[in-house]
Automatic annotation (TrEMBL):
Residues 131-161 are annotated as: Disordered. Keywords: Ribonucleoprotein, Ribosomal protein. HAMAP family: Ribosomal_bL17. GO terms for cellular component: ribosome. This is Large ribosomal subunit protein bL17.
C-alpha cells in the first residue's frame, strides 16, 4: 500500500492506517457489508476494489500480493473462490457506499459499504431474453414469408393448369 496521505489520519498514526484499512477490507469480504464512518469507507473503497481485481486474476502472484493485506486465510479463500468469480464479467465498481446518517454518540457521519451483487448478471440475462425474443420474432417473420411464397407458387400452378 502506498504511503498514507498527508494530514489527519484515520484515528492513529501513519503505521496504523494501512492496518486499519486492511482490517476493514477483511470484515467487508467476510460479511459482505459493514457499517463505518464515511471517511473510512471512502478511504477503504479503492483498496477493496484493487484486492478484488487481483483476486479475479487468481494466479499465485496475485494471491501472494493480496495475502500481504488480508492475512486471514479463511477470508482470503472466500475472496478467491466466492467473491472474485461473482465479478468475473464486471470491469469495476464492486462496492457501494450508502450514507445512513450520524452516529448517536459523537455525531460522526456514518455509511454502509457493501459488495454489489450480480447486477451485471441480471442485466445480461435481461439482454439475453430480449435477444431471444427478437430471434423468435425474426424466425416467425421468415416462416410467414416462406408460407406466402408457397401460397403464391400454388396459386401460380393452379392458374397455369
Amino acid at each position: 500500500m502506498p504511503r498514507p496521505t498527508k494530514g489527519a489520519r484515520l484515528g492513529g498514526g501513519p503505521h496504523h492506517e494501512p492496518l486499519l484499512l486492511a482490517g476493514l477490507c477483511r470484515e467487508l469480504f467476510q460479511y459482505g457489508r459493514i457499517t463505518t464512518t464515511e471517511a473510512k469507507a471512502r478511504r477503504m473503497r479503492p483498496l477493496a476494489e484493487k484486492l478484488i481485481t487481483k483476486a479475479k486474476k487468481g494466479d499465485i502472484h496475485n494471491r501472494r500480493l493480496v495475502r500481504k493485506t488480508i492475512t486471514d486465510v479463511a477470508v482470503l479463500h472466500t475472496l478467491f473462490t466466492e467473491i472474485a468469480p461473482r465479478y468475473e464479467a464486471r470491469p469495476g465498481g464492486y462496492t457501494r457506499i450508502t450514507k445512513i446518517g450520524t452516529r448517536r454518540g459523537d455525531n460522526a457521519p456514518m455509511a454502509v459499504i457493501e459488495l454489489v451483487e450480480g447486477e451485471i448478471a441480471a442485466k445480461a440475462t435481461v439482454a439475453e431474453a430480449e435477444a431471444a425474443a427478437k430471434r423468435a420474432v425474426k424466425e416467425a417473420d421468415e416462416a410467414k414469408v416462406e408460407e406466402t411464397k408457397a401460397d403464391e407458387a400454388e396459386a401460380a400452378e393452379t392458374t397455369e393448369a
